[in-house]
Specification:
heterotrimer, A mainly alpha, B alpha/beta, C mainly alpha, B: D-Maltodextrin-Binding Protein, domain 2, 2 domains, 13 strands, C: MetI-like fold
Chain lengths: 291, 419, 288
């Protein structure tokens, strides 16, 4: 970087400072992962006899293979691979539906306000603060009445319902910052409700879509409580399987397999972050807003 | 044998072809929390046996919190109007489900299989509601064990303790030798596990029954209970400061490695020793907690069966109940899980030394009255009372509360929880 | 005509769903809290008995106090760190993609297992304390996890670790939504970078602060796995939170009515904090 040399010293010091802070946080963030990873490539003998956070003496991939392919979970001996599909089948529709509804809601609540719209928004947000644990039983009853208990769609419904408040919140607060003149001008030009949404709002929404998708994917993929109560046997999501693998009441604990399984179970979400992250770019917006 | 297998094969094919119309092939959906390792291997045996009889097993496995998650899932399913056919439920909670009138009466199976004669009365009583069998016991774990590393004792010049005085003498010696006398995991259930053994060891069976089973407030606040708390507090001096929050198996590992002398834990601790390649009587010894040689605090797992309409499912349910107490399953399951059979008339051959001692004590204490349900492991009192006891015990152990205050608070908390 | 009805029609399904699945269930919980329900719901009305009993339980007080300490610290630290990281990442950092993923990844891991890793790191006999001592500083002490008065701060450390990344992502999205030309104009006017951030950019992120406050409050109130795995509420019940208290009573201990009562109190506590904030935020917008 030849230009860096020409920068004034204060600016260079600033860059150094920024990078140091960022890297310091990297250490804080990676420490648990480091522990998990080294544990996942140790043998159980080494874990039992050594320091838990020491580097492995004889690294092994066995725990990873076991977690993926042949660890015992319930009455099957096929690891956690089979449960991936259950989670994916539930996460994709739930994330898409809740994000789209959230985008439209946010659009209405920021640009098409009506009498009572703020009250509706406030109620939607406040409602989320009831602890989910207490609504398990009425939810179970409702799903039973709807004939959706133990089905993937029941679980999707639950996740959409309890995800709505936040998806709406994200989009509304993002759209609030968009100048209303844009919308008003379009209206005068005769553009309708959906046309404005499609032509003006959506093109500038990429960053907030990323945030919403990251949040919803994480929440739904990692949900345990609803998964455990509203699914059964072969439709259980991966978190329930992971929990079943990790928790024993009295069996010998295999920390290495547990850690490997946890990392494997997180891979799809990590993938989403990585892909979504690419769209976190400035510049998409500037032109569109001015347009 | 071969003929039978072919028959089964045919049956399975038939079952697939005409699914619901086959009269004797039903499906059982089983909620349980034996989801990994040896426990899961043990429960798979039951699935296999049911399959052999032509029934199918729909697994509903939910681990975590010693069955707490499974109970939450069970309640949601029951409320949605669609309970599983069988569920792993233990202790006084069996009664609670029975009170709702949703359980199947298993008296016919019990009669045909003579359960009354096979299962000790104390255990049988827990499985019954209004005198009718509504649950099937599976296995027995003994709680009042103390796991010792003989090398540590040797190094410290200490001897295995039979009484509390000897226990503390041994602790002193081990500590002087620079080792940790007691490997401890500071989680409420582990604290309660040790504590209830002390209740039994200090107060004897009568006192244990008054306090841990009847939850009698007078006994709970008595000087004897103060003494129990004093001993419990004294033990803390001989644990290391890193104990809070430690998982039980990491505490066991300390004994295995010879860093610590003893650990209070149920007989599942054996599995950790075995996995580490240790041999009982050589690398480690299982002693009863001081003063509890003639006591047997038990933790029995069991299944309840929900009332079902479908005739095939009913048959499958009954078959499952029968199989659970069959000698074949009792052996294969308990060897895998590290527990002992819950019924008499099982050969000792396949079991290790610790289990054999347990089996003998189980039958002997059943006669002497020393066979008692464990409070800590949800066998003795309602979950509400148990929770109240846990709160006081863990708060006492982790604060400087006086033993007198602890006994008083214990009685008060139990009283509140009973209301 | 259609033009005015259309927005309402579009949000109508959400409204119906909210009334049934959120407020209907809250009312149900409120009713259950005034019954004697034990392990399953029953509907015999007994009034406010459970509430009176609840406040006599010492553990509940500990849980409430912990929530204040934990929630306060958690929200402040996550917001500060999240904003800081977002601003720094927005300085044309070369490895932004990698760093962003590193900051976000804790969110992806189930705490059932990460909790174990944290437990080892924070345990004096296994983790940091031992490591530092082995490096030669033998008097170093870091034993919060096993100390009753300090264990709640360990929960804060792990919780901040888990959620900061998401707050960073929200702020980053906010920053990326700001029109570059505003910054350029200010720079032309001769304003320094620090001043631009302080006077122009951060104030314009107000809606993001609002979102992150709501989200973080929500996470704080519901923190459950974290405590269960990291400390099990211990030592003793010194790091218990209302959510773990509520779950224990409602499900594990078969005292559903009291669990419901504690949930309603939690709900009321949140109302007390959120409603004024929400009111002022929404009002401000209308007048702006």
């Amino acid at each position: 970087m030849p230009e860096a040399i020409h920068k004034p010293p204060s600016e260079r010091a600033q860059r150094v400072f920024i990078y140091s802070v960022l890297l310091l946080f990297v250490v804080y963030f990676l420490a648990p992962f480091f522990v998990m990873f080294i544990t996942s490539i140790k043998t159980m003998d080494e874990i039992r006899n050594g320091t838990l956070i020491a580097l492995p003496r004889q690294p092994t991939l066995e725990p990873w293979l076991k977690a993926w392919g042949y660890a015992t979970i319930g009455v099957t001996n096929e690891g956690i691979r089979g449960f991936f599909w259950n989670s994916i089948r539930m996460v994709i529709p739930a994330v898409l539906i809740s994000t789209i509804i959230g985008a439209v809601n946010g659009y209405v609540l920021s640009k098409w306000r009506f009498r009572g719209s703020d009250t509706f928004f406030a109620m939607l947000l406040l409602g989320c603060f009831i602890p989910f644990q207490v609504i398990l039983l009425p939810m179970a009853r409702t799903l039973g009445l709807l004939g959706l208990s133990e089905s993937v769609w029941g679980l999707v419904l639950v996740h959409v319902v309890y995800g709505l408040a936040f998806t709406t919140l994200f989009f509304r607060n993002y759209y609030v910052a968009v100048p209303s003149e844009l919308v008003n001008a379009a209206r005068i030009d005769g553009a309708g409700f959906f046309r404005i949404f499609w032509r003006i709002m959506l093109p500038i929404s990429t960053p907030i879509f990323m945030v919403t998708i990251i949040w919803q994917t994480t929440q739904i993929w990692n949900d345990f409580l609803f998964g455990v109560c509203f699914s059964t046997g072969e439709t259980q999501p991966i978190t329930v399987a992971l929990n079943n693998l990790v928790n024993t009441s009295s069996a010998v604990k295999e920390y290495n397999v547990d850690m490997a399984a946890a990392i494997i179970a997180a891979l799809p979400t990590l993938f989403v972050y990585f892909v979504a992250g690419k769209y976190f770019v400035r510049g998409l917006t500037a032109g569109a807003v001015k347009g | 044998m071969r003929g039978k297998r072919i028959l089964t094969g045919v049956a399975t094919v038939l079952a697939i072809c005409v699914a619901t119309t086959v009269a004797w092939a039903g499906e059982v959906e089983v909620l349980h929390w034996w989801t990994s390792g040896g426990e899961a291997a043990a429960v798979q045996q039951l699935q296999k046996m049911l399959n052999t009889e032509g029934h199918t097993w729909k697994d509903f496995a939910v681990a975590g919190g010693a069955g707490a998650n499974a109970m939450t899932a069970l309640k949601s399913r029951a409320v949605s109007g669609n309970p599983p056919t069988a569920a792993q439920v233990k202790g006084p909670q069996i009664q609670e489900w029975a009170d709702l009138g949703v359980l199947t009466n298993l008296d016919d199976v019990a009669k045909a299989e003579t359960w009354e004669k096979l299962v000790p009365e104390v255990v049988a009583d827990i499985m019954k509601a209004d005198g009718k069998w509504v649950a099937v016991p599976v296995n027995v774990h003994r709680i009042n064990w103390m796991w010792c590393n003989p090398m540590v004792f040797q190094k410290a010049g200490a001897i295995y303790p039979q009484t509390w005085d000897e226990f503390f003498a041994a602790c002193e010696k081990i500590q002087k030798a620079g080792l940790i006398p007691v490997a401890f995991g500071g989680q409420p259930w582990q604290e309660a596990t040790a504590w209830e053994s002390i209740v039994s060891g200090v107060g004897g069976p009568e006192f244990y029954k008054q306090t841990m089973i009847q939850a009698d407030e007078k006994a709970l606040a008595s000087p004897k209970m103060v003494e129990v708390f004093e001993i419990f507090r004294k033990i803390k001096k001989y644990t290391d400061r890193n104990a809070p929050g430690r998982d039980w198996n990491l505490a066991t590992a300390m004994v295995i490695r010879g860093e610590a002398g003893m650990q209070f834990m149920g007989d599942w601790a054996k599995g950790e020793f075995t996995a580490a390649g240790k041999v009982p009587g050589q690398d480690y010894d299982a002693l009863t907690v001081p003063g509890t040689a003639d006591a047997f605090l038990f933790n029995v797992d069991s299944f309840i069966m929900f009332e079902v309409k479908d005739a095939d499912a009913k048959k499958a349910q009954k078959a499952m109940a029968r199989l659970i107490l069959s000698p074949d399953f009792q052996v294969v399951f308990n060897v895998n899980k590290g527990s002992i059979p819950v019924r008499s008339g099982i050969s000792e051959d396949p079991f290790d030394a610790v289990a054999v001692k347990s089996m003998a004590d189980f039958m002997a204490t059943a006669k002497s009255g020393g066979l008692m349900p464990s409070m800590a492991h949800e066998m003795a009192v309602s979950p509400a009372v148990r929770g109240a006891m846990f709160d006081v015990v863990t708060n006492f152990y982790n604060s400087d509360m006086s033993p007198q205050d602890a006994a008083r608070k214990l009685a008060a908390a139990v009283k509140e929880a009973k209301m | 005509m259609l033009e005015t009805a259309l927005p309402k029609l579009v949000v109508a399904p959400s409204f119906v769903v909210m009334i049934i699945f959120i407020y209907g269930f809250i009312l149900w919980t409120l009713y259950i809290s005034m019954t004697k329900s034990t392990f399953l719901p029953t509907y015999d009305f007994v009034g406010l008995v459970q509430y009176a009993k609840l406040w006599r339980i010492e553990r509940w007080w500990v849980a409430c106090r912990n929530l204040l300490v934990y929630g306060g610290l958690f929200i402040v630290l996550c917001t500060t760190f999240g904003l800081l990281l977002a601003i720094f990442l927005d300085q044309k950092i070369r490895i932004e993609g990698a760093l962003r993923t590193i900051y976000l990844y804790p969110l992806a891991l189930s705490f059932v297992v990460t909790g174990t890793a944290w437990k080892w790191i924070l345990n004096p006999g296994l983790g940091i304390e031992r490591l530092v001592r082995e490096m030669g500083w033998t008097s170093f002490t870091f034993d919060w996890l096993v100390t009753s008065e300090m264990s709640i701060y360990c929960v804060v450390i792990a919780a901040v670790w888990q959620s900061t990344g998401f707050v960073m992502a929200m702020f980053l999205a906010g920053l990326r939504g700001i029109d570059d030309s505003i910054i350029k104009a200010a720079q032309v006017d001769g304003a320094g970078l620090r001043r631009i951030y302080w006077k122009i950019i951060i104030p314009s992120l107000r809606p993001v602060f609002f979102s992150s406050f709501i989200i973080l409050t929500h996470i704080a109130i519901k923190s459950f796995d974290l405590v269960v795995v990291l400390t099990r509420g211990g030592p003793g019940y010194s790091s218990d939170l209302p959510a773990t208290f509520m779950y224990a009573y409602a499900f594990t201990r078969g005292r559903l009515a009291m669990g419901a009562a504690s949930a309603m109190i939690m709900f009321a506590m949140v109302m007390a904090i959120i409603v004024p904030y929400l009111y002022s935020e929404l009002r401000r917008k209308r007048h702006a």
